[in-house]
Design a protein that fits this description.
three-stranded antiparallel beta sheet; single chain; Arc Repressor Mutant, subunit A; 9 helices; mainly alpha; 241 residues
């Protein structure tokens, strides 16, 4: 990037250019894309684009950095939560939905797909970023079961398998198929990890009351029914006795 925008107006313009570039790269491919096409998509003058970016390679590098920042923010948010006492299903669902939210942004979507299709155009992201994802997942697993000795291997399987499925999800235009693949990704990871960090394994998992519907421990008392205490789950909002 030629210069970093300081004012909010400039930041918004750069963000608009990156979003436009993502749409152009997605539509015609990186090779056929031009700064002129990107400027037209962004509804901005080519001179305005050149104030920030000298060429499309610089635009794509900015997209890389934007994606990395969003992913690391997601890791930080998930890492700030105490997931060690949550159900495995809740934990994996939270992580999967966080990834879904990441790829709602076209910039992240294009960067991810291009990483597997055109690695040679990347200037900032390499395999070390995948390793960071593995390390993050290993930390989550270790929190659930400190006695595990193969957390890195388990995390590696989770990351690489979910990346392969995510690539298929992002390539699909069938929304029903996308929803099915997303759910199957969650189910696959839960089934794979259950023997190692399942809800009934390890002394680190508290033996507390859990919602019979979603296994969350975020419960509130909800009056009495026939002399028995009733509860409501804060996660799925279902009631039970």
């Amino acid at each position: 990037m030629r210069r970093q925008p300081r004012q909010q107006r400039g930041k918004e313009r750069v963000k608009k250019i990156l979003a436009a570039a993502a749409l152009v790269f997605e539509r015609v491919g990186y090779t056929a894309a031009t700064t002129q096409l990107i400027a037209v998509q962004a509804e901005t003058a080519i001179g305005s684009l050149y104030q920030f970016f000298p060429d499309k390679a610089a635009i794509f590098q900015a997209m890389e950095l934007y994606h990395v920042e969003r992913v690391k923010q997601m890791w930080a948010q998930a890492g700030s939560l105490d997931l060690s006492h949550q159900s495995l299903r809740f934990t994996i669902h939270l992580l999967v939905q966080s990834v879904v939210n990441i790829f709602d942004d076209p910039v992240s979507r294009v960067v991810f797909v291009q990483f597997f299709e055109s690695r040679e155009i990347f200037q900032s992201i390499d395999d070390s970023f995948t390793q960071e994802a593995i390390d993050f997942m290993a930390t989550i697993l270790k929190q659930r079961n400190p006695q595990l000795t193969n957390t890195q291997l388990l995390a590696e399987v989770c990351v690489h398998s979910s990346n392969a499925l995510t690539l298929q999800i992002l390539r699909s235009a069938d929304l029903n198929h996308v929803a099915q693949l997303t759910q199957q990704t969650e189910d696959l990871i839960v089934s794979y990890l259950a023997p190692y960090v399942g809800d009934d394994l390890g002394s680190n998992v508290m033996k507390v009351m859990k919602c019979p519907h979603c296994r969350s421990i975020n419960l509130s008392k909800n009056g009495y029914r026939r002399g028995k205490q009733c509860y409501i789950c804060k996660q799925c909002r279902k009631q039970f006795v």
